[in-house]
Structures are given as structure tokens and as C-alpha cells.
Amino acid sequence: MAGNSFGARSSLEVGGERYEIHRLDAVDADLDRFPYSLKILLENLLRNEDGDTVTREQIEDFLAWDPNARTQSETLFTPARVLLQDFTGVPAIVDFAAMRDAIGDLGGDPDVVDPALPADLVIDHSVIAEVAGVPEAFVRNAEIEFHRNIERYRFLRWGQEAFNALRVVPPSTGIVHQVNLEYLAQVVFTDGKGRAYPDTLVGLDSHTPMINGLGVLGWGVGGIEAEAAMLGQPISMLVPKVVGLKLSGELPEGTTATDLVLTITELLRSHGVVGKFVEFYGPGVAEVPLANRATIGNMSPEYGSTAAIFPIDDETLRYLEFTGRPQGQIELVERYAKEQGLFHDPSREAQYSEHLELDLSTVVSSLAGPSRPQDRVALTESKHVFRESLARYTQWSTDEALEETFPASDTPTPEEDQPNGVLVETSDGEQFRLSHGDVVIAAITSCTNTSNPQVMLGAGLLAKNAVDAGLESQPWVKTSLAPGSKVVMDYYRDAGLLPYLEKLGFNLVGFGCTTCVGNSGPLSPEISQAVRDNDLTVVSVLSGNRNFEGRINPDVKMNYLASPPLVVAYAIAGSMDVDLYREPLGRASDGSPIYLADIWPSSADVEQLVRENIDSEMFRKSYANILDGDERWQGMDAPSGDESPWDPNSTYVQKPPFFDEMGAEPEPVRDISGARVLAKLGDSVTTDHISPAGAIVENTPAGQYLLERGVEKHDFNSYGARRGNHEVMMRGTFANVRLRNQIAPGTEGGVTLKFPEREQTTIYDAAMRYQREGTPLVVLGGKEYGSGSSRDWAAKGPMLLGVRAVLVETFERIHRSNLIGMGVLPLEFPEGESAVTLGLTGEETFEITGLEGHHEIPRTVTVRADGKEFEATVRIDTALEAAYYRHGGILHYVLRRLRAKQ
């Protein structure tokens, strides 16, 4: 029976419809002091009060929120819906199917394993830019995608029929976050039961906060956490600190949303917002278009915040109308937000835990790179900073630099190392010289910018100006265009800009995440060979949000994030070793120099194109039949029925072993004895380093596994596409080509030493040998361990390799919770200490004691390592997380609860 301790349950009539709502002003509290995002969490508690999971006392604790408190109380959050993409969605459906089997093995009814919340899965991560720069690229890539992924797509079609409340958006439709922004999000959610409440969600992708730009509270969680939410399990969290970022002023002429978001990323990462909410307020909010807000929200994981939200205001309503939402929905959003005190008032300032300010007029044209999104570089300094950064990639030695994950050394100039470049001749007879710093990938890609008409049309207009001036892309640059939705191609055609983009090689390669997620496709064989044979440090420039080492392409060491217009500019320049402010991009037919400023479009010209070429009908038409798919999807032969369709011969989908031999009751928590170190890592180790990502290389354990099963190299596909097969993913864990394991100095990739033999081998092979010997494993790391994408396999993989504990200086939020969700113990060194200060080499045998014999999970444990002893902090932060750990993982906990209710 739902509770109503505060008398909040009420009604609201809008457009002749009456809705049940839970009024915030029913509570006896000063709501004006609460940030916008916390008001949404308060409504969530009031609506879900049941006297058991959510109690009056919990709500009272929430109302006592102190913005300045050092620690906050625990709260629960029940999202309105769950958002999935196919890389993370396939293993979620695989786990659901395995849970059905497991609950049947325990004597229960498998049908209880079914989504309790609406869930949308958008297939957007499987298209790879295999073919680029030619008119037929889109058609050929779509054919390759469907051929490679038919096993996965059949499985998803089965899941859509087998599980209630699961909708699947077919491939070649758009990027999950842009589909969410333009179509799925309601802002005010109606659930079919006559209730209206804030639209909230969790997403199986760390860039889910893109929807925060629309005033919708949502963030990325691991697949494990999302699966529990889909099964009706509320998300346990500490009430977050809220950082208020006050905006003022306007963006200067010539700057873009990308420049703004890179500035904010640098500011917030420097300030420190990991695990916090960021909330934008102040007079400058009205000057930020919705598409720019979405771009800022999208980069939330890059600066580390859980969410980065803009409140509902007139710009929100304008965008809903612009994207073709029904008029009745827009009216409901306005009335509900104003009734609940959720409509932005720029004159009112809530109480925030921390305050920051940004004058938009100070933003300048920028890039970020070469390996982290927060490393902003002003365009005026890009050549100089590139040359300084080049040192890390052209030479390194086994000195003190290798104590960290990313080595450094003295800076050679490109001329010193390769004075004339390397001569390359392509298969069609074209010749050119390739040098350090040459741009070999220029990609307009990813959800970050392709939701933004201003920067997309700006790129098209710059392309037109460039072509009219006689400029061309350089022949060694792989150019690609992967918009976030089909609407982009509609307004490109209507504006007459598509021929100019195609003239520069920016042909459509697909609608989905391509280069940004590692699906850049191969370089031409001649360029790839030249790069590898001569150890060239070449560059990618992309309009994405991720540029971590080894992510974009295995041949490319330096990666820069840039706005779509700058991506086009660098395709023409062909090198990062160019000062785009002072050096010409090229020359006109009369020999006169042409500079970037000569072809850069004005803001007025871009806005005119937006007004003249985009209307609401484009969005209505594009999304009218979004669930239908093309003839390939409609004609696909997919399994049916409730029984899990496991195929033992599939290399894409296999039944995972997570629930093998699971009992009805959890085993007691044990201390960890006789553990060895599988990997000792430095700072800023991302989930890209831990989780299998990008291309599968032939001479790796995963590549060998596929070859042994008759899979040809050209059909390896990516790790992301094979996330439904734990055998592939285990072998790809810690296998990133740029990972540097400090217990195997001088190596890169998934290499370690097997102890006590000190034998160098792959991390996978060592882990399997340790398992046969019954030896548990630990991983050592530094600061910001697990930053980056919310990959469930960054936790699943280590668990299957036998990792029992991860001991680091600091964790990023999502990865820490994912480890707990897989039964792996997250530990932090004592404050101010590290593996280096404690003298840990990684060769020790570890004992971790203090876990056994306690009803509660302790706050600290004792760690002993060959005579060294210290107390480590247990980063299990809430009672619910402790329950998950005691059960061996969140899914085991939920599964046992479901069985117990039958």
C-alpha cells in the first residue's frame, strides 16, 4: 500500500485531463533552498513511499539535507524508465535470460524475471566505418553491420517478444542519446495509470546525462545496476553534493558549443565533481540553446559528475515544440513544472554545496587532447601543445616515468624524427608522404555534437566555403560523417550543403556511434603498414566525447576532440602540426593563401540556415515509424517463445556462468588469503583500459579464440559487438593496446608476470593459471581508477578472471558500484598513501582480513603484503551495497528476493 505521510498526493488538471501528482509544497520545508535536481529526488521519494522500502523517516532525513555536510545520508531513487544501447543492452538481455534459467533451477517461476519499468534499447553502437569517403559508404556499412551482427539482432528480437515493456529501436535509426533527446523523453512522464511526475531515467551508457539538457534527471549506470532497476530494485545512493555553476554573458562570435563544453569540462574536472550533481543556473542559462545544453550534459562523465542538469524553462518548451512533441505534452510540462516549483527563475538562487561561475564571453575556440577530454587546448596554442605532447608517443624508456600509466620524455620535433616523412603509395597509384602528427582520421561523429544543428550546419557551411575556395581534404585522411539522427541528413539536403561535404569526403557512413566508440574502421592497408613499420605517431580529430588511448583506432596514438567545423578544417590541413590561426589551410587557384578565418562561417549565417531549413515536421516524419526498421530487420528470422534461445555454436551470445551453482542463500563473506597481483596500474586508468573495447586483434587471446572457432579475421567485429559472449570478453579484459602494467615494465597491452615463476604472459593466460591453482587475485591502481564509460564488463571481466579485490587511491563512481555489483571488493589506500608510498611492487602475496565474522561490512580492513601492513578503506558506501556484496553481486541479490516472494 502506497504511503502518503505528508499528504502530498493530489491532482492536476491540464487540457481536460486529470492527473495524480505528488505536490512538493505539501512538505513542511523551505523548498526554495533545494536545488532543482534535489526537488526531483524529493518527488521521487514522496511518490514511492510505501512504509517499507521508502519510509517517512527516510523522507525526513532527505528534507534535512545540509549542503555543507561532509557526509550525506543514504537515499533511494526509482527511475521512471531505463535506456539501453546495444553494446550494453545485449549483455543485459543475456543476463535476464540466464536469470530466468537460474530461477527455474531454484524451483521458481522464470516469468518473474521481467522488466518492471519501461525500457528502450536503441541499436546504435554496431555500425563500423569500414567504408568511408565514397557515395556508397552508408549502404555498404549497413550491409556489413547486419551480416556481422545477425546473431545479436535475432537475440534482441527474441528479447523484445519475450520480455514485457522492452522496446527495441532497430539499427540505422540514430544514436541512443539523440533519439532520447528528440523523441523518447517526455520531461513530465505519464505512466498509463493517470499519474504525472518528472521524467527520470538511468541509462546503460555513461553519456545518458545528455538528457539533462532537457531538464530530465538521468545518469549512466553499469549494466548490472540497470538490470536491477529494470527488475524494480530502487537504486541506493548517497544524497549527492550539488555544485551550482552560475552562467552569465554570451558566447563570442566564432565559438561553438564544443568550445563551451570543453571549457566546462576543464573547469569542472579541475574543481572536482566526481559523484556530485552539477546544476546550471543564473541569467546566462537563457542564452544557452537547448542543443548546447545537451552537449554540455553529454560530457558529464568526462568531467566526472553524476549529472549536469539545466532546469526546465522557456527554452525547454521551445525545443519540445521544435522537435514535434504533441501540444498537449508541452502544456503538461509547463503547467506541472510551474505548479511544482521546477520552472527556472533566474533571479532565485538555491543553496548549493559548492559554487562556481563562468562568463560565457570568455570561451575561446578549443580542442581537447591528445588522450583525455579534460585536457583543453586553445586553438591558438594547438600546434605548440601538440609538439610538447608528441614526446610521450615517439620515444620512452624504462625510467621513473613508467611509474605512472602514461610515460613522458623529452620533446622531439617532427623534423628531428622523420625529416621528410614516409613515402606511401596507395593501391590506385596516389603518392604522398606521411609524418608524425598527420591527421589520418577526421570524423564528424558521436552524440556530443551531432544533436546540435548549429555546429552541424556550421560544418556544412565551412565545407561549402572551402570547396568554393578550391580547397580539398588531404589524401591520407579518412573522412566520415555519422549523424545522430536522420533529421541531420534532411536539413543538410534542404540547405544544399551535402554536395560540399561529400566533395571533401564527408559522406554518410551510418547513423550511430562510430569513431567515438572505437568503430572507426581500418585505415587503408598502405597507411596502416607505413604507420606500423615506421612507428609513426598519427592523429585522429573527431567531434566526439572520448579520446582515450587505444580507443579510436589501434594505429592512432593521439586523438583530439573538436567541433564539427574544426574536424573539416583539419581534414583539409591534414596535420596537427599546423597553426590554423597563423598558417594557411591551402592556396587558391591564383596561389594566394587561404586561412581558416577566410572560410569560417558567421553565427548569423548559421542561424539563418537553422531558421530556413529545420522545422518540426522533419522530426515528426523521421520518428513516425521508428520501431519498424528496414526490410532486413523486418524480414529477419528470429527465435520466439519464452525459453532462452542459447546456441552453443554462437560466437556472439553465450549463457554466462554468473549463476552457475548459485544456492538459495548466500555464502558467508570470507577474508582474502594468498592473493597475487594481476596488474599494478597508475593514475587515470579508464574503463577503456580495463574493459574490452574497440577492434579485436588477431594475436590476442580473444582473436585466437575466434580463429579456433572458424571466424575469419575480417569478421572479428568489435569487442562491443561480442559483449554477449563471456568467453571473448574475459580474454579481452585488461587487453587495451595502451595499458601499461607496471609489474611487466617496458610492455604495452594485456601483459603481466605470473608469480612466483615471474613468467611473462598475457593477463588472461596468467589469470587462468592462477584459477587452476586456487589463487585469488587483486588489482592495484592509482587515482581516478575506472573513469570513463559505464562498462559492466570492466567489472564482469575482472570477476571472471578471479579478481577478488581492487585496491586504489580513488575510484570513479560508476566503476566502483559495478565492482560491488559483481561481488568484487573496492578498497582505497589510506588517505595520502599509494602503492608507491607504501613500497608495494606488485610481487607480494596479499592477505585481506577483517571481513569474516561480521554482520555488517566493516569500514576498514587490514591488508598485509609480505611484511607491509596498513588499513584500507572499504568503499561500500550504503547498506544496500553491503547487501549486494554479501550476496556475491546485485543480480544474485535480486534473484534470491524474487524467488523468496514466490
From TrEMBL:
Pathway: Carbohydrate metabolism; tricarboxylic acid cycle; isocitrate from oxaloacetate: step 2/2. It is an enzyme of class 4 (lyase). PROSITE patterns: ACONITASE_1, ACONITASE_2. Its cofactor is [4Fe-4S] cluster. It comes from the Bacteria. Its EC number is 4.2.1.3. GO terms for molecular function: 4 iron, 4 sulfur cluster binding; aconitate hydratase activity; metal ion binding; RNA binding. Residues 65-574 form the Aconitase/3-isopropylmalate dehydratase large subunit alpha/beta/alpha domain. It holds the Pfam family Aconitase_C. Keywords: 4Fe-4S, Iron, Iron-sulfur, Lyase, Metal-binding, RNA-binding, Tricarboxylic acid cycle. It catalyses: citrate = D-threo-isocitrate. Residues 704-831 form the Aconitase A/isopropylmalate dehydratase small subunit swivel domain. Belongs to the aconitase/IPM isomerase family. Catalyzes the isomerization of citrate to isocitrate via cis-aconitate. This is Aconitate hydratase. The lineage of its organism: Bacteria, Bacillati, Actinomycetota, Nitriliruptoria, Egibacterales. The gene is acnA.
